[in-house]
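Page 37, continued from 36.
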């Protein structure tokens, strides 16, 4: 596919001025245009919602023509083909991979939620190394983008995990692009730039650690809840579209809060409410159990709700020592 076919100006109705406004909003190509919602485009270019929808439809039609996007009505065969293009990244733990049906999927948003220290950030670090390994070894031979909102990305930890897989730390580090997000608006801006990076570099993993923290911190009180949920909704949908258009895996982390209305069982609930719940393709709840970590698959469309035990060690995410001999 040539670059010109994706240029904004090649779309009917996009002149230099519109192009400039789109570029200012971080929309550089037809791919970016399709990955945004109509209200966002309308705001960026200062046009009516109906015109924005029109523009997005033109962009969609172009991508369908180019074979990058499926049509509204697709045959089950085409869907099957698209699903066959789904790749998987190993987490480093066979137990956790089994729970996920073979690893983290591309074309999907996988959410890990759990209390502090449950291993969310460690899962993200390990995946950034694993994605770079060859296909036969659980990777996709590709790089990663790490959006760090809590300032917890640690290159030394990446180097340690790489070394324990007999990989060259410097080589591995050079293929992880880290973006520190200082607030929710900045986090949204960074994700808008991702499309461009992904086309340029070979990226198969996008991590957002954590997806919800800034929104929680910035929108306090009941009065701001609607706006918070709207912004979060837009953000999560952007992530899902990026995953689908670029065939990459998106992994987000999320904290938990106590649900006051739960009297039996575990009262922990992921933050972000329905918005995050409905957009994440897979949700995995992590909890501590002594030295072990337990992962539970929650409301997946087709995985049974069950649990897997893993540990955190020099390889990042790993299987408990007692489980490893069973695999030989
Ligand atoms: P929050 O972001 O605070 O909500 O927690 P989290 O779920 O992201 O936890 P994180 O992934 O940071 O896990 C922290 C735990 O990982 C620690 O309690 C340690 O047990 C373990 N851990 C962190 N760094 C290392 C390391 O370098 N080596 C090993 N073996 N374990 C580590
Ligand atoms: Mg963390």
């Amino acid at each position: 596919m040539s670059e010109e076919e994706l240029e904004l100006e090649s779309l009917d109705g996009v002149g230099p001025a519109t192009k400039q406004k789109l570029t200012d909003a971080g929309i550089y190509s037809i791919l970016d245009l399709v990955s945004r919602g109509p209200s966002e485009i309308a705001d960026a270019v200062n046009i009516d919602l109906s015109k924005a929808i029109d523009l997005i439809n033109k962009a969609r039609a172009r991508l369908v023509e180019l074979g990058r996007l499926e049509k509204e009505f697709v045959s089950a065969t085409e869907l099957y083909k698209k699903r066959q293009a789904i790749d998987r990244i190993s987490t480093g733990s066979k137990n956790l991979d089994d729970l996920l049906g073979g690893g983290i999927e591309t074309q999907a948003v996988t959410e890990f939620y759990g209390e502090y220290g449950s291993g969310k950030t460690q899962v993200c670090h390990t995946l950034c190394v694993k994605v770079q390994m060859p296909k036969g070894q659980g990777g996709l031979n590709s790089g990663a983008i790490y959006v760090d909102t809590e300032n917890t990305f640690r290159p030394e930890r990446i180097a340690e995990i790489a070394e324990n897989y007999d990989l060259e730390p410097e080589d591995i580090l050079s293929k992880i692009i880290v973006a520190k997000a200082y607030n929710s608006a900045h986090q949204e801006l960074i994700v808008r730039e991702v499309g461009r990076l992904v086309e340029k570099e070979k990226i198969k993993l996008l991590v957002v650690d954590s997806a919800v923290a800034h929104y929680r911190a910035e929108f306090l009180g009941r009065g701001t809840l609607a706006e918070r949920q709207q912004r979060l909704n837009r953000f999560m949908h952007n992530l899902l579209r990026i995953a689908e258009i670029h065939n990459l895996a998106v992994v987000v982390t999320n904290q938990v809060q106590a649900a006051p209305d739960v009297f039996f069982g575990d009262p922990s609930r992921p933050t972000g409410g329905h918005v995050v719940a409905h957009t994440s393709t897979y949700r995995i709840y992590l909890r501590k159990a002594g030295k072990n970590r337990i992962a539970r698959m929650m409301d997946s469309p087709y995985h049974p709700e069950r649990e897997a035990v893993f540990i955190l060690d020099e390889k990042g995410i790993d299987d408990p020592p007692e489980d490893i001999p069973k695999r030989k």
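The longest helix spans residues 225-245. Flag for discussion at group meeting. The chain has 14 helices and 13 strands.
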